[in-house]
Specification:
alpha+beta, four-stranded antiparallel β-sheet, 8 strands
Length: about 190
Amino acid sequence: MALAFSFFLVLLCFLQLAYRSHAAALTTAIGANERVCFYADADKAGEKIGFYYAVQSGGSFDIDFEVKDPSEKVILDGKRERQGDYVFTANNPGEYSFCFENDMSTLTEKLVDFDIMVESEPRREPSTKPGQISDQTSALEESIFRLNGMLINIKRTQKYFHTRENRGFDIVKATKRCVQPNEVTLTR
């Protein structure tokens, strides 16, 4: 049993070493006609930047977004989007901006969950053999990389279901507000 626990701890240490990144998972309220921006730094060209967002409540569950690189060039943008999950390569080091805009709404505040991740993982050269990451990679390292990919997919699936749950609750609350004022109590 102690050997299994030690193996588990070693596996966790390898996961931490194999996948170095910094991320910010946040929830923010964006008022009507408001623009809110967040920033992430890429230390060097070639780093991967992940950007996920989902509108949790408010209006039609849609928001405008825009992602710009350090030279203010638009990399990604969208109008009236409900959610998105993007990964792109930072071609220039510097500060990337991630902006949300709720200008289509005149009254409704939007609640948006989002996650910005800058990956600082050392890149391996792709192998010519299918199924192998590299000749120098041990079976344990290869398993760790596969587990990491599976865990990322699980995390994305959890975010998707969390978003669906929040939207469902918001619809129930809105329906309840519409029905309750129309209730009539009969007394004798």
